[in-house]
Amino acid sequence: AQNINKYIQERAPWTLERKEKEKALIVAMNALKSLAIVAEPFMPEASNRLLSEQLGIELPAAKWPEAQKIISSFQTQKPIKIFELISEKKLEKIVEASKAPKNIEEVLRD
């Protein structure tokens, strides 16, 4: 993910001509697709949302061999938040609750 962010920042597709912009975005989208497929066993909900809701990739097709295939076009959707920003206060509550596992569900609901 850090390398994808770095690539986007360095290429700055918003400053490029149309063809170069498209190339840069295709590279970034393919990298995101591969990252989501590889991360799926560890973060299934986030990976599935990124693939289906953002990149328009049907989930049955999103398997390990697909991570290496290059897609030349994507039907992207309106951006959504994949992860929630966790405040310092909530993080502290989560750390405290992790010491007493019965309370963790309650903390996550807040």
Name some characteristics of this structure.
110 residues, mainly alpha, 55% helix, globular
Overview in brief:
By secondary structure, this protein is mainly alpha-helical. The protein contains 5 helices and no strands.
Describe this structure in words.
With 110 residues, the protein is mostly helical. The protein contains five helices and no strands. The longest helix has 22 residues, at 18-39. The mean pLDDT is 81.
Unreliable stretches covering 5 or more consecutive residues: none
Largest sheet: none
- Mean of the pLDDT scores? 81
Give Rg in angstroms: 17 Å
Percentage of residues assigned to helices: 40-55%
Give the termini distance in whole angstroms. Answer: 28 Å
Give the topology string: H per helix, E per strand.
HHHHH
Shape by Cα distribution: globular
Total helical segments: 5
**Proportion of strand residues:** under 5%
Structural class: mainly alpha
Write the topology of this structure.
Elements: H1 2-11, H2 18-39, H3 44-54, H4 88-98, H5 104-109
Helix pairs in contact: 1-2, 2-3
